[in-house]
Design brief:
The chain is of the alpha/beta class. The chain has helices at about 35-55, 70-75, 85-95, 105-115, 130-160, 175-180, 195-215, 220-255, 255-265, 270-280, 290-295, 320-335, 340-350, 355-380; strands at about 5-10, 15-20, 25-35, 60, 80-85, 305, 310. The radius of gyration is 28 Å and the shape is globular.
């Protein structure tokens, strides 16, 4: 017998349906909350199926953001094998049904049916270090987006209070610039002890000249000043968090052998390398480079029907968007100024064949993934001999 248990995961609970074998449902579906007591009951339920069938059932569930995390962690602690599906796979399977019915019980049932119709490999557990690195890298991206939004709002308000100030510093968002704007021009010496007194007074004079040109000589709206100070505090806050996250990411990544291997490829720096290895995880999860390419979503889609075969095929974009973005940046850095000779030769070859620039870059991303797969498998550094 080949037992399986399907879990339709939602926020805080899951719907459970078991099969003893193909076309042999086991009992009625039931709801299970994601708390220790009910997870323990779920483990007893799995052991009960094991007694009936002679083997521990496979658990199949969809990847649902972070809602499935407590279930996955519990299954891993108990040594239970499970299959974590991409929601696209289960969604396509549900569309094949003629009846348009959607309930949690039916979804759990359909997951079991899908298990028998397809050949899925059990999910391979990722290392704690790589998961920590992935979580930190993703959090860095989130905070960076918040920081960029705060900068835009700050810029908008500054244009309504003191637009000429933007010409004083090369980096408007530097700590010295923000502190001076927060206080008053003569405080410039206090906030830049590493600079000379001459530099400080020159900056002070530049600020005063800018103030004299400021079209808003009288501040009508006190709310603008309040909002400006608030956004400056937010900018300081985000800068501190981003600096801390970057230090932690680099420290954690330096403990991983893969980090140095990835950085041996010209065009891949610390941040891009950390994102790539955190999104890929253990390379042993993939037994062929094409599976890694599919995971990144840079494989070409295929459209063929009857005598028609599409000649323009876009990449699937069904994998990790963060991995795709990092590969894109790595390719741009590599082909710029021929930093990566091998990649530049390949890019030029594609261009000479008449491929558009974007298509050539995607081909380079695909090629780069094949190199990464080979290097990580062999644990070797990259040799850029074009």
């Amino acid at each position: 017998m080949n037992p399986v248990v399907g879990l339709d995961v939602a926020k805080g609970e899951s719907q459970v349906q078991a099969f003893l074998d193909q076309s042999k449902p086991y009992g009625k579906s039931f709801s299970m909350k994601h708390i220790k007591e009910e997870l323990d009951h779920f483990l007893d339920f799995l052991k009960g199926i094991e007694e009936v069938t002679g083997q521990m059932p496979m658990v199949i569930l969809e990847s649902t953001g972070h809602y499935h995390t407590p279930v996955i962690q519990y299954l891993e602690e108990q040594g239970i094998l499970y299959i974590l599906l991409n929601p696209i796979i289960s969604y396509q399977a549900k569309k094949t049904s003629l009846r348009k019915v959607k309930t949690d019980a039916i979804d759990a049932y359909q997951l079991c049916v899908l298990y028998y119709n397809e050949d899925f490999d059990p999910h391979k557990i990722r290392g704690i270090q790589l998961l920590n690195l992935r979580n930190l890298s993703r959090q860095q991206e989130i905070v960076t987006n918040m920081y960029v939004e705060a900068k835009l709002q700050f810029h908008t308000i500054l244009d309504q209070v003191f637009p000429e100030y933007r010409k004083v510093f090369g980096d408007l968002y530097s700590r010295v610039s923000l502190l001076i704007l927060k206080e008053y021009p003569t405080s410039v010496i206090e906030f830049c002890p590493s600079r000379s007194g001459q530099w400080a007074w020159e900056k002070a004079k530049k600020i005063m000249d800018s103030a004299s040109r400021n079209p808003f000589q009288k501040n009508v709206y006190e709310s603008h000043v309040i909002n400006l100070r608030m956004y400056m505090e937010l900018l300081f806050h985000y800068q501190g968090h981003l600096s801390d996250l970057e230090d932690r990411i680099v420290a954690l990544a330096n403990e991983l052998e893969e980090y140095k291997i990835i950085q041996s490829i010209p065009g891949i720096g610390e941040k891009i390398a950390a994102t790539i290895i955190s999104e890929i995880g253990e390379i042993d999860r993939f037994n062929h480079p094409k599976k890694l390419v599919a995971f990144a979503g840079v494989d070409p889609s295929v459209h063929s029907s009857g005598k028609f075969t599409a000649t323009i095929n876009r990449m699937t974009k069904r994998g990790s968007s963060r991995l795709r973005h990092s590969l894109y940046l790595a390719v741009l850095c590599g082909i710029r100024s021929s930093r990566n000779k091998k990649l530049k030769v390949f890019y030029d070859k594609k261009k000479s064949e008449g491929e558009p620039a974007k298509v050539s870059i995607v081909a380079c991303m695909n090629k780069l993934l094949h190199w990464i797969y080979a290097l990580l498998k062999r644990k070797e550094a990259f040799l850029d001999l074009a």
